[in-house]
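Q: What residues go here?
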């Protein structure tokens, strides 16, 4: 199969699932931009009215790590300050303020997109190998010069790469819009354009979108066992793959508990599942700008095992697609 056929297959997947993979993320990001615009207006109004009640929460490294001379106050909760304090901070540490503003908004957008994409991922993985068998569309696609192996791998690749790519694009839009809003606000408050442009040039806030890209790729690798298992259920199920993906883990957990209670033998099913989900917590991006991501925080062995399990499940789904009769 040549590259053009793969591209056509990927476009087909995108076109058939554009609501979940395009429209839903765009709506989420649009809401973030609208809320940001409303927040900018509110901040400006509060500043014009000299409202002391409007405040920000700010974490200063010196609050938790000391003042640079080995003396810290031990307060790791940060401090609150209002618009005047923000402008004063901006006038002396513009690059840092820009970085923290952009990073905070980018991670807020990423959090909402992650929830949205996870729901879309579950829906797509359950249906992508089941619906065409249920509707007998697979008979048409088998008449095309595309193997079932290629068909499954294209669906898998589309699912694995769509989230990192779409999140990167949307986060770039959000980051640039955030910089624009912040710059307009600081210009109105009297800061010079040359100082603001210099601060933007020295700020590392825009790099947070690439930090998120790295985290997204690692998380998609970590999700391979779940994706592969759902693919296998989607290729096997005769009525509903959701029943299979829900019932089998529940039965395994119950079996582990019952066997452990009656015989004292630990099947380590629950322990294995707990260890797997703990991997999600072992590699977390930091919201502090300039920190970035680090491979030192990655459990490489865990990720390799996840990748191998996912590949095993996907291989099973490919075998089923090539060797079973249709519904």
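A:
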């Amino acid at each position: 199969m040549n590259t053009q056929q793969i591209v056509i297959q990927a476009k087909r997947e995108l076109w058939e699932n554009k609501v979940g993979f395009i429209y839903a993320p765009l709506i989420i990001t649009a809401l973030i931009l609208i809320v940001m615009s409303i927040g900018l207006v509110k901040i400006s109004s509060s500043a014009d009215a000299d409202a002391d009640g409007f405040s920000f929460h700010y974490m200063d490294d010196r609050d938790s790590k000391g003042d640079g001379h080995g003396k810290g106050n031990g307060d790791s909760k940060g401090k609150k300050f209002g618009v005047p304090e923000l402008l004063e901070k901006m006038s002396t540490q513009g690059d840092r303020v820009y970085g923290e503003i952009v990073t905070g908004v980018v991670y807020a957008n990423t959090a909402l997109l992650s929830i949205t994409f996870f729901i879309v991922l579950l829906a797509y993985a359950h249906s992508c190998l089941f619906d065409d068998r249920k509707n007998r569309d697979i008979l048409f696609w088998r008449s095309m010069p595309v193997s079932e192996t290629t068909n499954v791998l294209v669906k898998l690749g589309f699912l694995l790469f769509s989230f990192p790519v779409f999140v990167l694009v949307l986060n770039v839009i959000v980051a640039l819009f955030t910089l624009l809003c912040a710059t307009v606000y600081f210009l109105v408050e009297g800061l010079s354009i040359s100082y603001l442009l210099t601060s933007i040039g020295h700020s590392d806030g825009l790099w947070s979108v690439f930090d998120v890209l790295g985290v997204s790729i690692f998380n998609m690798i970590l999700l391979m066992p779940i994706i592969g298992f759902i693919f296998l259920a989607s290729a096997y199920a005769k009525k509903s793959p959701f029943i299979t993906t829900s019932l089998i883990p529940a039965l395994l957990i119950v079996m582990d508990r019952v066997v452990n209670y009656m015989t004292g033998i630990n099947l380590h099913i629950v322990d294995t599942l707990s260890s797997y989900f703990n991997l999600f917590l072992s590699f977390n991006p930091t919201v502090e700008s300039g920190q970035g991501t680090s491979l030192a925080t990655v459990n490489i062995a865990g990720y390799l095992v996840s990748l191998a399990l996912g590949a095993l499940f996907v291989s099973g789904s490919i075998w089923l697609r090539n060797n079973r009769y249709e519904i």
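A: Context that may help when evaluating the design: Residues 3-51+93-323 form one domain. Strands lie at 55-58, 79-82.
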